[in-house]
Amino acid sequence: MTIEIERKFIVTEASTVARLGTGVQLRQGYLAEEANVEVRVRITPMNATLTVKAGTGLSRTEVDVPITLAQAEALWPHTAQRRIDKTRYRVMLEDSPGHVAEVDVYAGALTGLCVTEIEFSSEAAAAAFTPPAWFGREVTGEPGWSNAALARHGRPF
Description:
By secondary structure, the protein is of the alpha+beta class. The chain is about 15% helix and about 45% strand.
């Protein structure tokens, strides 16, 4: 079992997106959701994973299982109405050595949304982290901002 400790922010500084470099396109669809447990399939041009996430907030259980692209494509039709498309960029944080921000620029129905997430080794490390100004407003644990919620309901207002 793996625990994911992650903080999430809404990027509002448009100039940040222009500095990101090369990203990886992701298709992410949700196969099942109940209470605070979700099962998703993620497809990139190079690989695919089946992921179970459980919990809410800063720390959640996350189990990733590699699957073949053929298996992922077979599951994809079962994610209808629960999908997101985005490009993910990995940005080394100069002011926080050892930290990498994953910046997601959404497409499709979520075009214009840019989110950054950063993972930590402990809750203490997460609490001690001071985000750069370009990260914008923190939405860690806020209802409506999980990828599963965005896939099903769109951007919260």
